[in-house]
Amino acid sequence: MELVFIRHGQGEHTTDLPNSLNTRDPALTNQGKKQAVSLRSQFPLSSTDLILISPMRRTLQTVEIWSEGIHCRKIVSPFLSPRMFPQKQEWTTLPCDELLAKEKIKNEFKDFEIDVEEFSKEWWTKGINKLPEQEFVLIADVFLNWCKSTGKNRIYLVSHDGTITSYRQFITEKKLSRNDFPKEVGWLKVNW
Protein backbone atom coordinates (compact mmCIF):
# COMPACT_ATOMS: atom_id res chain seq x y z
CA MET A 1 0.00 0.00 0.00
CA GLU A 2 1.30 3.43 -0.93
CA LEU A 3 0.85 6.20 1.63
CA VAL A 4 1.12 9.76 0.32
CA PHE A 5 1.76 12.10 3.25
CA ILE A 6 0.98 15.75 2.48
CA ARG A 7 1.62 18.69 4.77
CA HIS A 8 -1.13 21.32 4.96
CA GLY A 9 -0.82 24.70 3.28
CA GLN A 10 0.57 27.76 5.06
CA GLY A 11 -1.38 28.46 8.25
CA GLU A 12 -1.91 31.70 10.15
CA HIS A 13 0.11 30.25 13.02
CA THR A 14 3.34 30.46 10.96
CA THR A 15 3.19 34.09 9.80
CA ASP A 16 4.76 35.82 12.83
CA LEU A 17 6.87 33.24 14.65
CA PRO A 18 7.05 32.61 17.56
CA ASN A 19 4.09 34.84 18.57
CA SER A 20 1.68 33.36 16.03
CA LEU A 21 2.05 29.90 17.61
CA ASN A 22 -0.34 31.17 20.27
CA THR A 23 -3.12 31.50 17.67
CA ARG A 24 -6.05 29.20 18.45
CA ASP A 25 -7.65 27.32 15.56
CA PRO A 26 -5.50 28.91 12.83
CA ALA A 27 -6.88 28.88 9.30
CA LEU A 28 -4.99 28.84 6.01
CA THR A 29 -3.52 32.12 4.82
CA ASN A 30 -4.22 33.31 1.27
CA GLN A 31 -0.87 31.75 0.32
CA GLY A 32 -1.97 28.49 1.99
CA LYS A 33 -5.16 28.48 -0.05
CA LYS A 34 -3.16 28.90 -3.28
CA GLN A 35 -0.90 26.05 -2.18
CA ALA A 36 -3.96 23.84 -1.61
CA VAL A 37 -5.19 24.62 -5.12
CA SER A 38 -1.78 23.53 -6.47
CA LEU A 39 -2.42 20.02 -5.13
CA ARG A 40 -5.12 19.59 -7.80
CA SER A 41 -2.50 19.37 -10.54
CA GLN A 42 0.04 17.45 -8.45
CA PHE A 43 -2.47 14.87 -7.24
CA PRO A 44 -5.66 14.87 -9.33
CA LEU A 45 -8.36 13.16 -7.29
CA SER A 46 -11.15 10.80 -8.33
CA SER A 47 -14.25 9.55 -6.55
CA THR A 48 -12.40 6.34 -5.59
CA ASP A 49 -9.68 8.11 -3.59
CA LEU A 50 -9.41 8.05 0.20
CA ILE A 51 -8.02 11.00 2.14
CA LEU A 52 -7.32 10.83 5.87
CA ILE A 53 -7.04 14.19 7.59
CA SER A 54 -5.88 15.70 10.87
CA PRO A 55 -8.67 17.34 12.91
CA MET A 56 -7.30 20.85 12.49
CA ARG A 57 -8.82 23.71 10.49
CA ARG A 58 -5.68 24.17 8.34
CA THR A 59 -5.60 20.52 7.25
CA LEU A 60 -9.36 20.37 6.72
CA GLN A 61 -9.26 23.54 4.61
CA THR A 62 -6.35 22.17 2.58
CA VAL A 63 -8.38 19.06 1.72
CA GLU A 64 -11.60 21.02 1.18
CA ILE A 65 -9.89 23.21 -1.43
CA TRP A 66 -7.89 20.38 -3.03
CA SER A 67 -10.91 18.07 -3.36
CA GLU A 68 -13.46 20.71 -4.43
CA GLY A 69 -15.93 19.14 -6.86
CA ILE A 70 -14.64 15.59 -6.25
CA HIS A 71 -16.79 13.33 -4.09
CA CYS A 72 -14.06 11.12 -2.69
CA ARG A 73 -14.03 9.71 0.82
CA LYS A 74 -12.54 12.08 3.42
CA ILE A 75 -12.08 10.79 6.97
CA VAL A 76 -10.86 12.95 9.86
CA SER A 77 -8.65 11.03 12.31
CA PRO A 78 -6.99 12.04 15.59
CA PHE A 79 -4.05 9.79 14.64
CA LEU A 80 -2.94 12.48 12.17
CA SER A 81 -3.21 15.36 14.66
CA PRO A 82 -0.14 17.51 15.42
CA ARG A 83 2.81 15.74 17.00
CA MET A 84 5.91 17.23 18.56
CA PHE A 85 9.10 16.11 16.87
CA PRO A 86 11.35 15.34 18.52
CA GLN A 87 9.42 14.60 21.69
CA LYS A 88 10.10 16.85 24.67
CA GLN A 89 7.93 15.81 27.60
CA GLU A 90 8.59 19.11 29.37
CA TRP A 91 7.00 21.05 26.48
CA THR A 92 3.28 21.78 26.37
CA THR A 93 0.85 21.64 23.48
CA LEU A 94 0.73 25.01 21.76
CA PRO A 95 -2.64 26.76 21.27
CA CYS A 96 -2.27 26.38 17.48
CA ASP A 97 -2.12 22.58 17.90
CA GLU A 98 -5.26 22.01 20.00
CA LEU A 99 -7.66 19.64 18.20
CA LEU A 100 -10.99 20.82 16.85
CA ALA A 101 -13.98 19.18 18.52
CA LYS A 102 -15.81 16.54 16.51
CA GLU A 103 -19.05 18.57 16.63
CA LYS A 104 -17.32 21.65 15.21
CA ILE A 105 -15.88 19.56 12.37
CA LYS A 106 -19.28 17.98 11.64
CA ASN A 107 -20.94 21.42 11.53
CA GLU A 108 -18.33 23.20 9.43
CA PHE A 109 -17.00 20.43 7.15
CA LYS A 110 -20.12 18.50 6.24
CA ASP A 111 -18.56 16.36 3.48
CA PHE A 112 -16.00 14.90 5.89
CA GLU A 113 -16.49 11.73 7.93
CA ILE A 114 -15.36 11.46 11.53
CA ASP A 115 -13.22 8.46 12.47
CA VAL A 116 -15.39 6.56 14.93
CA GLU A 117 -13.34 3.37 15.17
CA GLU A 118 -13.33 2.03 18.72
CA PHE A 119 -9.54 2.31 19.04
CA SER A 120 -9.61 6.05 18.17
CA LYS A 121 -12.22 7.27 20.67
CA GLU A 122 -9.88 8.24 23.52
CA TRP A 123 -7.51 10.06 21.15
CA TRP A 124 -10.10 12.65 20.16
CA THR A 125 -9.57 14.49 23.43
CA LYS A 126 -5.84 14.12 23.98
CA GLY A 127 -4.38 13.72 20.51
CA ILE A 128 -0.88 12.36 19.87
CA ASN A 129 1.13 15.57 20.35
CA LYS A 130 2.90 14.59 23.58
CA LEU A 131 2.60 10.81 23.32
CA PRO A 132 5.90 9.18 24.39
CA GLU A 133 7.70 7.46 21.52
CA GLN A 134 7.14 3.91 22.83
CA GLU A 135 3.39 4.55 23.00
CA PHE A 136 3.33 6.29 19.61
CA VAL A 137 4.82 3.24 17.85
CA LEU A 138 1.98 1.08 19.20
CA ILE A 139 -0.65 3.57 18.01
CA ALA A 140 1.10 4.03 14.66
CA ASP A 141 1.12 0.27 14.08
CA VAL A 142 -2.62 -0.02 14.83
CA PHE A 143 -3.47 3.00 12.67
CA LEU A 144 -1.37 1.90 9.69
CA ASN A 145 -2.79 -1.62 9.85
CA TRP A 146 -6.28 -0.08 9.84
CA CYS A 147 -5.22 1.87 6.72
CA LYS A 148 -4.14 -1.39 5.11
CA SER A 149 -7.48 -2.99 6.00
CA THR A 150 -9.30 -0.44 3.79
CA GLY A 151 -8.07 -2.40 0.76
CA LYS A 152 -6.87 0.79 -0.96
CA ASN A 153 -3.63 0.65 -2.94
CA ARG A 154 -3.00 4.34 -2.20
CA ILE A 155 -4.16 6.57 0.65
CA TYR A 156 -3.54 10.29 1.02
CA LEU A 157 -2.79 11.49 4.57
CA VAL A 158 -2.93 15.25 5.19
CA SER A 159 -1.18 16.21 8.38
CA HIS A 160 1.63 18.23 10.00
CA ASP A 161 5.42 18.32 9.72
CA GLY A 162 6.13 16.60 13.06
CA THR A 163 3.40 14.00 12.60
CA ILE A 164 4.50 13.11 9.09
CA THR A 165 8.11 12.82 10.21
CA SER A 166 7.09 10.61 13.17
CA TYR A 167 5.22 8.19 10.89
CA ARG A 168 8.01 8.25 8.34
CA GLN A 169 10.58 7.41 11.03
CA PHE A 170 8.38 4.57 12.29
CA ILE A 171 7.82 3.11 8.80
CA THR A 172 11.38 3.43 7.49
CA GLU A 173 13.08 2.67 10.83
CA LYS A 174 15.57 5.47 10.05
CA LYS A 175 16.45 8.19 12.55
CA LEU A 176 15.09 11.51 11.28
CA SER A 177 15.39 15.11 12.45
CA ARG A 178 13.57 18.41 12.01
CA ASN A 179 15.66 18.83 8.84
CA ASP A 180 13.47 16.08 7.35
CA PHE A 181 10.24 18.07 7.81
CA PRO A 182 8.20 18.54 4.64
CA LYS A 183 7.56 22.13 3.55
CA GLU A 184 4.04 23.59 3.18
CA VAL A 185 2.06 21.22 0.90
CA GLY A 186 5.24 19.21 0.63
CA TRP A 187 4.62 15.51 0.18
CA LEU A 188 6.31 12.15 0.31
CA LYS A 189 5.36 8.63 -0.62
CA VAL A 190 6.03 5.68 1.64
CA ASN A 191 5.14 2.02 1.13
CA TRP A 192 3.67 0.12 4.09
From TrEMBL:
InterPro entries: His_Pase_superF_clade-1, His_PPase_superfam, PGM_Phosphatase. CDD domains: HP. PANTHER family: BROAD-SPECIFICITY PHOSPHATASE YOR283W-RELATED, HISTIDINE PHOSPHATASE FAMILY PROTEIN-RELATED. This is Histidine phosphatase family protein. It comes from Bacillus spongiae. The lineage of its organism: Bacteria, Bacillati, Bacillota, Bacilli, Bacillales.
